[in-house]
Amino acid sequence: MSNQAFYPIGTPGQPWGAAERAEWLARQVKHRSYADDVLRVVDGLRDAYDVAQYGELSYGTEHYPLLAVRSRDWRDGLPVLVVTGGVHGYETSGVHGALQFLQQHGRDYAGRANLLVVPCVSPWAYERIHRWNPDALDPNRNFVKHSPAGESAALVDLLEPLRDIALMHIDLHETTDSDESEFRPALAARDGKSFEPGEVPDGFYLVDDTDQPQPDFQQAVIEAVAKVTHIAPADARGEIIGSPLLMPGVIKFPVKQWNLCAGITNARYTTTTEVYPDSPRATPQQCNDAQVAAIRASIDYALAHPNG
After folding, report:
1. What is the pTM of this model?
2. Rounded to whole angstroms, how far apart are CA atoms 152 and 142?
3. Strand pairing class (269-275; 166-174)
4. 274 tagged catalytic
5. pLDDT tens digits, residue range 226-257?
6. For residues 213 and 241, what is the distance between their CA atoms, to the nearest angstrom?
7. CATH value at residue 78
8. Which of 98, 74, 70 is nearest to 84 (CA)?
9. Domain containing 216: what range?
10. Where is the active site (predicted)?
11. What is the enclosing helix (H) or strand (E) of 51?
12. How many domains, in total, are found in the chain?
């Protein structure tokens, strides 16, 4: 099947050039407010946490301050635990789950750990409910030094001092029906490739690191989330999104090779959550709660097993 059957921009078999990217950008519409949904909430956390701006994105006339929330009692020697959300702006529960965790549970770890939470890595995409940034780049394939994606470059620079001391990093994502209806077809069109339809799993799952698997850690997170929402089953091939199932609800990717967010540091424990918000069996609040449960289980396991 040709790209044209699935996506209205570009010529089948030919990667996008500047004209196609400009056409794509012109179609993007702002649907919600980063200032209202994220910055306002973070401002309400300043009495309990240290909030710092680690960068700013400027796209035309729009400017987005990038904020990180840290434990107020940050102390050398305490375990460093990293939480990131909103790498893909359309994956809503990643952003709101990170904020909910800070509001309800972050202070539970005061004096026990150094928390660093970045609730919305990609604010332009958050406002447009999109996966890419304005340059049609996926931040979650570009977490490298001097990245062409400003969102990715800023986060890499923020985490560089923690690269070898972070104990845990959980990156909060969603898998949505729009992955198949919009984002994967757009990717195929952008790159001049044929689109091959896939299957969206119904439920929560995790992505482990191929090069440093931590099955007991992943299992602990799955067990915690299963109390909140359902875990995605494998498809007829025993896979989730084309990857073999390692255990119920867990697959693996080479996170550093693919320049994914969870591979920025050398943390012992890393995972990427995938919530399914389009399921008839899950509400938006359940999706947020699932992200919070995953964060808490990741932290609790890492603190209980700091040396593996």
Report:
1. 0.97
2. 6
3. parallel
4. yes
5. 999 999 999 999 999 999 999 999 999 999 99
6. 19
7. 3.40.630.10
8. 98
9. 3-304
10. 274 (proton donor/acceptor)
11. strand 49-59
12. 1
